[in-house]
Automatic annotation (TrEMBL):
<protein>
    <recommendedName>
        <fullName>ATPase</fullName>
    </recommendedName>
</protein>
<feature type="coiled-coil region">
    <location>
        <begin position="14"/>
        <end position="56"/>
    </location>
</feature>
<keyword id="KW-0175">Coiled coil</keyword>
Amino acid sequence: MANFKKTGGEEMSSIELIKVINEAEEQADKIKKDGVQEAKQIVADANKRASQLILEAEDKADAEYNLAISKAEEEAGKVYDNTIEQTSEKSRVILSEAEKNIQAGVKVVLERIVKSNVNC
């Protein structure tokens, strides 16, 4: 059996060396497993954060959409109200003119009726 020297100058047997190597391999395996687990956790955390960011972006987009719709409805309401007001004003003017024409027409008809009855 071969003998190896420990760091303190003592000799180490092959069996002790195999034990040390086995322990080192076990530690390496544990480090590797821990690293794999940590990497999986990092990926899971990243996926979770990505999902949160997507939800936040969707919420923000919905809020902006609703705000844009609200502003558009408000603007459409103003245009509608303005159009109704303008149309109502035009209708009042037309109605006023029509009333004048009707009154003038009634006056003409009454004058003719009166003239025709006076001449009888």
